[in-house]
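We treat protein structure as text, and this decision shapes the records that our systems exchange. The tokens are whole numbers drawn from a learned vocabulary of local backbone shapes. One such record is reproduced below, unchanged from the form in which we store it:
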Amino acid sequence: MIFFRHYRSIICGWIVLWGILCSCASVGKITNQDDSECLKNFQTQLALVMTEEGEPQLSAQRIASKIVAGLSFHPLGRRIFLVEGEDTDYSFFIQNNNGQCVLRLVRTRKGFTTYTNNLTYINSKDIPICRCED
């Protein structure tokens, strides 16, 4: 019986490790940032995530608008990007999902409290019309 328990714990450990490795996402890049409809959808989804996380709606829309306006000077690359809200900071990245872009919120920071979830993510939104690559 002890022999079976030992193997059962090893098998469970491998299953957990496999689940963690499979859930790791690569950071993608929006390939059509020059498309106005793509940018409009990106702005809408960005504001929606911040609103769902407690940011006032007008503030979230204003911040998302500034982020999109800044993309002409600093395009989103393959990295996590920070968005500063009124009293909360948000860390996002873009994930390629078979050529479609997904906006992922992985970290929030409010005052001295930081919350990170890079396994199931805090919030996720598809970005219609935008195309992605790894």
